[in-house]
């Protein structure tokens, strides 16, 4: 796990990770009160690398304690898969605002999570780039003013290959994402486009929209991160370079925006935008696909020829 720290704004209370060396280095540097890892063996390795006054936890219960057992006001849930559900619910129950980078939480139990968040007065702030884009475009607009939203997709590692060219592709091929630097699972899911199916479900719960109001477009440049069409058919899009630090920072600083030192998008260097339709074969993606995707990638979309 990597951590984005805006030192002048935040103090970390606790975190979870499994890569001991960077976790230990970050823990020594930022000194959280609690750290959690996956199992007892990792906890033992970590103990010799960090100060003795930092509490070390492990397992599912450690993850829940990290999420809900401190006085932190904001919790980023970024663990992989549906193991993020219980700690997210615990954090919401404890009244903490959530930065949601774990889409499986809403895919598997969106009705439970959103109802609890509403009852507790807790914000669910999206960290996925597409959902952050929609959130920014809406800017407080009520759902009844939305005609539809469109989630864009890079198309993943195999977007330029025909179906017959997918024979014999390897994991290493799938991990070579052309635009984004992400974890292994989400990069694989991007290559198969399973990830976009899960994002449609996440958008359904985050924004209270019917599935008929959610569309997907292949956009290889990953400059337009998503857009909203309102009932008057005006459209607002959120655009920028493909950099996950932007939606992460926005969730952490919402409703403010912090200055970033890096250079922004240089429009004169863009040659134009490409869009292609996304066609999902079979019935609509549902929660069981998310669970199956924990160990496999069963869905493959087919692209129509792109048009300028």
Descriptive notes:
The protein has 308 residues and is of the alpha/beta class. It has helices spanning 20-30, 40-47, 59-68, 85-93, 104-120, 129-138, 171-174, 184-192, 194-207, 245-253, 287-292, and strands at residues 14-16, 34-37, 55-58, 74-77, 97-100, 124-126, 146-153, 214-218, 224-230, 235-239, 276-279, 302-303. Helices cover 35% and strands 17% of the residues. The strands form three sheets. The protein has a six-stranded mixed beta sheet with strand order 10-9-7-8-11-12, covered by helices on one side. Mean pLDDT is 86; it is low at 1-7, 281-289 and 295-308.
Portion in strands: 15-25%
Total helical elements: 11
Question: Low-confidence stretches at least 5 residues in length (pLDDT < 50)?
Answer: 1-7, 281-289, 295-308
- Strand order, largest beta sheet: 10-9-7-8-11-12
Decide which structural class fits the backbone.
alpha/beta
Shape: globular
State the end-to-end distance: 38 Å
Mean pLDDT: 86
Q: From N to C, what is the helix and strand string?
A: EHEHEHEHEHEHEHHHEEEHEHE
The portion of residues assigned to helices is 25-40%
Number of beta strands: 12
Q: Sheet bearing the most strands, described?
A: 6 strands, mixed
Radius of gyration, rounded?
20 Å
Tell me briefly what this model is:
Helices cover 35% and strands 17% of the residues. It is α/β, with parallel strands linked by helices and 308 residues long. It is globular and about 55 Å long.
Key descriptive features of the protein:
308 residues, alpha/beta, 11 helices, 35% helix
Topology of helices and strands:
Blueprint: E1 14-16, H1 20-30, E2 34-37, H2 40-47, E3 55-58, H3 59-68, E4 74-77, H4 85-93, E5 97-100, H5 104-120, E6 124-126, H6 129-138, E7 146-153, H7 171-174, H8 184-192, H9 194-207, E8 214-218, E9 224-230, E10 235-239, H10 245-253, E11 276-279, H11 287-292, E12 302-303
Parallel strand pairs: 1-2, 2-3, 4-5, 5-6, 7-8
Antiparallel strand pairs: 7-9, 8-11, 9-10, 11-12
Helix pairs in contact: 3-4, 4-5, 5-9
């Amino acid at each position: 796990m990597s951590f984005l720290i805006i030192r002048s704004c935040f103090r970390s209370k606790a975190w979870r990770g499994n890569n001991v060396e960077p976790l230990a280095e970050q823990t020594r540097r930022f000194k959280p009160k609690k750290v959690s890892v996956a199992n007892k063996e990792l906890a033992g390795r970590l103990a010799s690398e960090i100060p003795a006054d930092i509490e070390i936890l492990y397992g599912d219960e450690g993850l829940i304690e990290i999420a809900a057992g401190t006085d932190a006001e904001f919790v980023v849930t970024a663990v992989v898969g549906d193991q993020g559900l219980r700690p997210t619910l615990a954090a919401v129950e404890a009244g903490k605002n959530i930065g949601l980078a774990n889409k499986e939480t809403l895919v598997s139990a969106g009705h439970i999570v959103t109802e609890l968040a509403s009852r507790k007065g807790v914000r669910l702030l999206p960290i996925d780039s597409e959902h952050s884009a929609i959130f920014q475009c809406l800017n407080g607009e009520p759902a009844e003013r939305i005609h539809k939203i469109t989630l864009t997709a890079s198309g993943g590692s195999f977007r330029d290959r025909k179906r017959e060219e997918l024979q014999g592709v390897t994991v290493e091929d799938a991990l070579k994402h052309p635009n984004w630097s992400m974890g292994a699972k989400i990069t694989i899911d991007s290559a198969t486009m399973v990830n976009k199916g899960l994002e449609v479900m996440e958008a359904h719960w985050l924004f209270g929209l019917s599935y008929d109001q959610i569309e997907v477009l292949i956009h290889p440049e990953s400059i337009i991160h998503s857009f909203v069409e309102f009932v008057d058919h005006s459209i607002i899009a959120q655009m920028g370079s493909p950099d996950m630090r932007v939606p992460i920072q926005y969730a952490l600083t919402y409703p403010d925006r912090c200055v970033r030192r890096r250079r922004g998008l240089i429009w004169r260097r863009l040659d134009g935008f490409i869009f292609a339709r996304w066609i999902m074969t079979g019935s609509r993606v549902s929660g069981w696909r998310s669970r199956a995707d924990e160990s496999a990638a069963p869905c493959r979309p087919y692209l129509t020829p792109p048009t300028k």
